[in-house]
Design a protein that fits this description.
The structure is a single chain. With about 230 residues, the chain is of the alpha+beta class. It is built from 4 helices and 6 strands; from the N terminus they run αααβββαβββ. A 6-stranded mixed sheet has the order 1-2-3-4-5-6. A hairpin with a 2-residue loop joins strand 1 and strand 2. Helix 1 packs across helix 2 (about 15-40) and helix 2 (about 15-40) runs antiparallel to helix 3 (about 45-65).
Length: about 230
């Protein structure tokens, strides 16, 4: 186990180190399951992998984090989402290439994920300007958010992953959602510890994915192939 950062210790206490190892291992397992599902149906497109990964990321995290002290499972939008010490562990696959986490954005500025980030993420760094206009009508909030007490805080687990290269980046932290362009604005983010055996998620004879957690200059997100609806 590597050193535990001050932010992680402040957020999760004595569980921080184990969580930092368990979460990326769960995502590698999710990639492995999704890849096997794609190989099973043998389609020419990557729909089976993409939709499979979207589903199994929650299942893998639920299985891997359930043994942690104080862990509880909540069903949100038909998925099992894990909560530890009032922190909602929520995965977002933000890219299919090895792009920095600062390129992460949602496909929509409304909907469940957007509402979750606005309600349980950090307070916006910059408050909206008061233009002297009447408050615009906000779309109705997703009803599943009523299942989360207001004191629950969101920990976003953002990762870059593809079927060919596996899990390339995993970071966690706290981010707000900028409505005008749907980018995640990170108040804090840091790389998670790589799993002990990154080759576990690879097909036989396939090279292990390059895990690169170093900071890079901002690049635009990969929009050539749309990710599952967020």
């Amino acid at each position: 186990m590597g050193p535990v950062t001050p932010w992680a210790r402040e957020t999760f206490g004595g569980l921080a180190g184990r969580l930092a190892e368990a979460i990326p291992a769960c995502l590698l397992q999710a990639h492995d399951r999704a890849r096997h599902g794609h190989e099973g149906v043998n389609t020419q497109t990557l729909e089976a992998y993409g939709h499979g990964l979207h589903a199994v990321q929650y299942e893998a995290l639920a299985s891997g984090l359930a043994p942690f002290e104080g862990a509880r499972a909540i069903r949100l939008q038909g998925r099992t989402v894990m909560v530890i010490d009032n922190k909602v562990i929520y995965p977002i696959r933000y890219a299919k290439k090895d792009l920095p986490v600062t390129s992460a954005r949602l496909r929509r500025a409304v909907g469940f994920r957007a509402d979750l980030i606005r309600r349980h993420g950090p307070e916006p760094m910059q408050q909206a300007f008061d233009l002297g206009l009447e408050e615009l009508d906000e779309p109705e909030v997703h009803p599943d958010l009523a299942l989360l007490p207001p004191e629950f805080r969101l920990i976003t687990v953002a990762y870059a992953c593809s079927m060919e290269r596996g899990v390339m980046r995993v970071e966690w932290g706290a981010a707000e959602l900028r409505r005008e362009d749907r980018y995640l604005i990170w108040h804090h983010h840091e790389p998670l510890l790589p799993p002990a055996d990154p080759r576990a998620a690879q097909a036989p004879g396939q090279a292990a994915p390059r895990t690169n957690f170093r900071a890079r200059t901002h690049q635009p997100p990969d929009v050539s192939e749309p990710l599952p609806r967020q």
